[in-house]
Amino acid sequence: MKFCARPSTYLGALSTAVALAALTACGGPPAAAVAAPPAEHPMAMPAPTSTAAMQPVAAGTVTIANFAFSPAAVTVPAGTTLTWTNNDSVPHDISGGPLHSPTLSQGQTWSYTFSTAGTYSYICSIHPYMTGSVTVT
Hints:
Elements (H helix, E strand, L loop, with lengths): L6 H21 L27 E2 L4 E5 L2 E3 L2 E4 L3 E7 L8 E2 L2 E2 L8 E6 L3 E6 L7 E6 L1
Parallel strand pairs: 1-4, 2-5, 4-10
Antiparallel strand pairs: 2-3, 5-8, 6-7, 9-10
């Protein structure tokens, strides 16, 4: 069986059909508008709280896991001793201002007592994208 049309004619017709399909899909009538929920069913979202960023620390601990300090930002009263525990399988440290821990392997801890009010920012110097802060009141 012989194909009668030239390959270029076939490709031209195919290109035209694809272009028309694309234009029809893009330029078709607008979709029906989505109606707002009835007034008797208001959708309320809780307001964000500032406590999400600064959390009191339970038992004076900060966990190092999944390449992050948790909680990343804490508030403690002066005289509090914080203990960082490395739960990752790679080494980390705590570095910034007066904070200079040794390199902590998995399961190791390091503690620091905050005696002066202020905000202390720190990083893991091995992984500088890991950041944290302690606000001492």
